[in-house]
Amino acid sequence: MGTIVARKRSDGSTGYTAQILRKKKGTIILREAKTFDRRQAAVAWLKRRETELSEHGAIERANSPAVSLSTAIDRYIDESRKVIGRTKAQVLKSIKEYDLANMDCPEIKSENIVDFAKELAKGERQPQTVGNYLSHLASIFAIAKPAWGYQLDPSAMADAQVVLRRLGIISKSKHRNRRPTLPEHDLLMQHFFDRSKRRPKAALMHFVIAYAIFSTRRQEEITRQEMSDVDSKHSRLLVRDMKHPGEKIGNDTWCVLPTPALKIINAMKNSGRVFPYSTDAIGAAFTRACKFLDISDLRFHDLRHDGVSYLFETGKTIPQAVSISGHKSWQSLQRYRHLRQTGDKYAGWKWLDVVTAH
């Protein structure tokens, strides 16, 4: 059993040091001590720690070298065979800059995670963003102990998330409903058309924008497409490593190519990648153009939302829309259920002729 020793401090107060000593064959194999301001707190810690040390392998783990959360993050990134998305990688890198990352894994409790989330929320981060930070961090808490023996407690993360939801500090991401208007589309297309005349080697962003709408493809899917993945005879495209809640690598899916999208691919006249540009280049060019043209709160991914909405507005059924967009469940398209056939807003759109007759 442990002991509690009361000692007078230099300021006249009393500190209570709880001590644990474990021996094996006369040799000390574990020594721990922690000081508290109140005897009750020392007694509570002693009981809890004695219970923890009675578990199989607890003493060996207590004697193992201290490992910080930052080390666990690095190991997760290094050893993951799954592709870690750009956003998740940036989030994990950012977390390493906070005090939480410098703590040893066994020391991290739910209250530490709650404090970390509160610190995140002090800036301009919305509850959805803070929730995403914790969701990415939870991936490490889930595997650190069974995979590497790092004493990160998944229940601490789960408890913290419950508390933070009730406090309103984290929340699920809300669906964006931003769609570009036709005048905004015209501004963007004219901007990039003019740029292509001035700079022939620049990315043909007006082709990319039109394709994103009519194909409903995501930015990373667009940059990965090879001409060999296009089945022109059957108007379909093999989308490799399509985004999926559970798996991404090897999640190759055939998707129907609407006629305008197939025409844009053929107009590019490339033999390798259909759109030989990086996601960073596309994203940066789109963001800069929106800022230059004073188009507010528009993201490249909003083009996919516009494209899926357009499918329903032109009379597509849910099965037909799924065959094009590649959504894994019809439930994912429930946000579009209010849309009804309202006509073809892109009928006669001059820019479609431009990007299909190049």
Structure notes:
The protein has 358 residues and is mainly alpha-helical. It has 16 helices and 6 strands. It has helices at 39-53, 58-63, 69-79, 86-95, 99-102, 110-121, 127-148, 154-167, 182-198, 205-215, 219-224, 259-268, 279-292, 302-313, 318-325, 350-356; strands at residues 3-8, 14-24, 27-36, 230-231, 236-239, 253-256. The strands form 2 sheets. A 3-stranded antiparallel beta sheet has the order 1-2-3. Strands 4-5-6 form a 3-stranded antiparallel beta sheet. Strand 1 and strand 2 (14-24) form a beta hairpin. The termini are far apart.
Write the layout of secondary structure elements.
Elements: E1 3-8, E2 14-24, E3 27-36, H1 39-53, H2 58-63, H3 69-79, H4 86-95, H5 99-102, H6 110-121, H7 127-148, H8 154-167, H9 182-198, H10 205-215, H11 219-224, E4 230-231, E5 236-239, E6 253-256, H12 259-268, H13 279-292, H14 302-313, H15 318-325, H16 350-356
Helix pairs in contact: 6-8, 7-8, 9-10, 10-12, 10-14
Summarize this structure as a short list of keywords or feature phrases:
6 strands, 10% strand, mainly alpha
Shape: elongated
Order of helices and strands: EEEHHHHHHHHHHHEEEHHHHH
If strands are numbered along the chain, what order do they take across the biggest sheet? 1-2-3
Helix content: 40-55%
Could you tell me the mean pLDDT? 89
DSSP, total strands: 6
Which regions have little confidence, pLDDT < 50, spanning 5+ residues? Answer: none
Mind telling me the C-alpha Rg?
28 Å
Which structural class matches the secondary elements? mainly alpha
Percent strand equals 5-15%
Largest β-sheet summary:
3 strands, antiparallel
User: How many helices does DSSP assign?
Assistant: 16
What's the end-to-end separation, in Å?
83 Å
